Amino acid sequence: MPNIRPLSPELQEAAKEELGEDPNRIEKDLQHIKEWLKKQPHLTARTDDQFLIAFIRGCKFSLERTKEKLDSFYTMRTALPEYFSNRDPMDPHMQEVLNSGTYLPLPGTDSQGRRVLLQRVAAYDPNKINLSDIFKSVFLIWDIMLREDDAGTVKGIVSLLDMRGATVAHAMQLQPTTIKKTMTCFQEGYPVRTKGLHFVHLMPAFDKVLSLFKSFMKEKLKRRIYLHGDDMESVYKNIPKSVLPKDYGGDAPSVQELTAQWKKKVESYREFFLEDLKYCSNEKKRPGKPKTSEDLFGIEGSFRQLSFD
Predict the structure, then answer these.
(1) HSE of 283, CA atoms in CB hemisphere, 13 A
(2) How far apart are CA 281 and CA 181, in angstroms?
C-alpha cells in the first residue's frame, strides 16, 4: 500500500472529479514514476510516496507531465543556487526574512476548498533584505506545503497580494532577471495550480509592476488576475473573512501570530532542508544536451529596469 495520507471524503471526491484520481491506480502510478527516476542518471530525487503523489496530483495524473515536472523541479535546484544552496532557516539572515511574515499560507480554505496564501509584498525592509531572499523563503514554505497541504495540492491555491506600504525601494528590486527566474521556477518546477491572484492596496505605478510580472506568466494565469484597489469588501466576495487574519477584518489569527507559527514550522524542517541539498540535477550526466541557465531563463527581447517617477 502507498504510504500517503488518506484524503478527507471531500478532497477524495474532488481528486476524483477534478484530477481524475483513481485510488486503485495510485500504487501502480507511484511505482512507474519511481522506476523512471531510477533510470535518470542526472537526477538525485526524493522517492517517498507523499512527495511523489503531490506531483502526480498537480499534473492531473498525467505521468508524462509528472516526469517533466519532476525533472524541472530538480533542474531548478541546480540552476538557481541563490534560492536552493544555503537553505538553513536558522541562518541569521533567513531568521530576519521569516520574522517579516511576507508570505503566509492561511489556516482554513476558501468556499471552494482552495488554500489561500497571503503575500504582504512590502512587509520587509528593502534596505536590509533582498527580494531574492524573500523568494528563497517562499520556496522553503512551498516545499513544506508539498508534503503537508492536501487542500492546496488537490483544489489549488488562491493568493491575496497586499501591496500596502510598497515603496520605490521595494520596486527597484524588481529586476526582470529575478522575476523571470522566480516565475519560471514556480510555474515549471512546482506542481501548483493557481486559481486566482487577488491584488489589494495597489501601489502607485502598479501597472508597471504588473506588466513586468505578466510578461513572464502563462496565459491561463494572466486570466486569473483580479484587482481590488483598496476595496476589502470586494476581496471578501472572493476570499471569505473566515480565512483572513484579524488585521484584514477576518476571523483567523493575526498576522503576527501566523508569522510566529510559520517561522516555527519552517524551523522544525531544518534537518530536512539541510539534507535536501543533495537532491538536484547533475547536468553533466543528463542524456543529450545539458540544460543551462541561458536555456532556462534567457530573457527574450530587451527589458529595461523599471523606472518610477
Answers:
(1) 13
(2) 17
Sole residue written with cell 521556477:
185
**What residues have CB less than 8 Å from 50, skipping those under 6 apart?**
3, 4, 5, 147
Residue pair 159/197 in contact (Cβ under 8 Å)? The answer is yes
Residues of the chain where predicted confidence (pLDDT) is lower than 70: 299-309
Q: Which three cell numbers stand for residue 267?
A: 524551523
Q: What is the pLDDT of residues 66-123, one digit of tens each?
A: 999 999 999 999 999 999 999 999 999 999 999 999 999 999 899 999 999 999 999 9
| Torsions phi, psi for 227 (to 5 deg) | -105, 125
Structural domains present in the chain: 11-83+278-290 (1.10.8), 100-268 (3.40.525.10)
According to DSSP H, which parts of 39-187 are helical?
49-58, 63-79, 81-84, 92-100, 131-148, 150-155, 168-172, 176-184
The CB-based long-range contact list for 82-87 (8 Å cut-off, 24+ gap) reads 82/132, 82/136, 83/132, 83/135, 83/136, 83/139, 83/185, 84/136, 84/139, 84/277, 84/280, 85/277, 87/136, 87/140, 87/273, 87/274, 87/276, 87/277
3-class secondary structure for 257-292? Answer: HHHHHHHHHHHHCHHHHHHHHHCEECHHHCCCCCCC
Report the amino acid identity of residue 270. Answer: R
Q: Indicate the Cα dihedral angle 134, 140, 141, 142, nearest 10°.
A: 110
How many of the other CB atoms lie within 10 Å of CB of 196? 19
Provide the total of helices (H) and of strands (E) in the chain, helices listed first. 16, 7
Strand order in the sheet with 225-227: 103-109, 115-120, 157-162, 194-200, 225-227
